[in-house]
Amino acid sequence: MKIYLSQLCVALGIIFFLLFSQKSSCGEIPEELIHKTVYGPVVDGINLKVPTELGNQQLAASGLVDITAAPFFADPTGAKDSTESIQAAIKFARDHQMVCFFPSGTYMISDTIECIQNYYKRSNSKIYNARNFPCLLIGSRQGKRPVIYLKPKSRGFENASRPKYVVHYWARSMKNHNEPAPPVSMNQMFINIDITIGKNNPGAIAIRHRGAQGSGIQESVIRVGDGLTGIEGGCGSGGSHADITVIGGNIGLDLRETQPAPTISGLTLTGQRETAILYQGRQTLSAVGVVIDFAGKGMPIVSKSASWSPVHGQVCLIDSRISLNQRGPAISSESSLYLKNVYIKNASKIIAGVREPLLDVKPGGWVHLKEYTNVAQPRK
Q1: What DSSP designation does 3 have?
Q2: Which DSSP helix (H) or strand (E) runs through 287?
């Protein structure tokens, strides 16, 4: 009997602990950050009601929020600052499970555009990440691709030692709603929209997007100019970046922070001053169809390992091309590297620090690496 009573006490204690923990966790989250339960047409699905306050009802019926129509009125001519209008449209589209739609045009901004994924209260009353309430930004395919243009010398973007994002994707953590949780940043997309950084913004990073399944950047030309970085953060765990051109900047693609096994495909990186791709993410970066035209002082690809983990920094590069303006190593790698069908121009060797020069390649000449592997032992 004593055994049964003790077991019952333990069970009741666990139940009360779980109930208290759930209540305490929910109580710490501001109510305005929790999306209400969707009951139809499918429970915990997508609410198909069309908001009547949207000025462009034709697009709204298709699930699109026109940022140039009422009640937002973003200016597609680039004459007026559209920061607040775009931010309001993104929040509205997210909260109504719709797509934030950019008609063709140039949209001048002067501050960070935040794309934040909040929380969702499921039909069982538990609070989870809001994977069905993502920030989806999509540009029109009629006419020229829309452009988000950071105004020259915008406040907060002037210091390279204190970088600031032009567009920032992130999801709120269950532990602290002010902190990001990349593993639950799901289905967040940036598609068919260009970003141009105006002059005198040396601390500007065009877009930060470290996400998981269903997330990524696609079909975008990012003109960094004298800004700092094109893209920061990699999408893995089912997410990816694809069909992107990055022009200028110190770093084209800063992937020191990624979700596991990030993927990039169809990327062109040109005019970077330090490096085109910087990688230190967890598990292998799979890169396919990458073109790098490099004229900087560093190396086109820099891959770093991590002392705290043996599975950081590996790179797999396939069907790609690297062209160096100045003769030198093509890659700096502290982790294992695999290349297949990769063309390299004007390289003195494949990997810096490795005793393996390219075979009799004249300066300015091309070498075709049908298959190449360099195995690096992980740090102890």
Answers
A1: H
A2: strand 285-288
With 0-12 / 13-18 / 19 or more C-beta atoms within 10 angstroms meaning exposed / middle / buried, residue 349 is: middle
**Pairing mode of beta strands 127-129, 119-121:** antiparallel
Rounded CA-CA distance 135/98 in Å is 9
Angle at 201 between CA 200 and CA 203, to 5 degrees: 140
What is the pTM assigned to this prediction? 0.91
**Torsion angle defined by CA atoms of residues 83, 88, 91 and 96, in that order, rounded to the nearest 10 degrees:** -140
C-alpha 87: how far from chain center: 18
The two most distant CA atoms of the chain are separated, in Å, by 87
* Rounded distance between C-alpha atoms, residue 333 and residue 297, angstroms: 17
For the sheet containing 301-303, what is the strand order?
113-117, 164-171, 204-209, 229-234, 251-258, 275-279, 301-303, 331-333
pLDDT tens digits for range 248-299: 999 999 999 999 999 999 999 999 999 999 999 999 999 999 999 999 889 9
Q: What would the two tokens of residue 161 be?
A: 């030692």
3-state secondary structure 80-102: EECHHHHHHHHHHHHHCCCEEEE
In angstroms, the CA 324 to CA 330 distance is 7
On the question of a cis peptide bond just before residue 41, with omega within 30 degrees of 0, the verdict is yes
Burial readout 65-83 (b: 16 or more C-beta within 10 A, e: otherwise): bbbbbeebebbbeeeebbb
Q: Which of 308, 277, 303 is nearest to 376 (CA)?
A: 303
User: Cα dihedral sign for 121, 122, 126, 132?
Assistant: negative
The answer to whether 103 and 76 are in contact (CB under 8 A) is yes
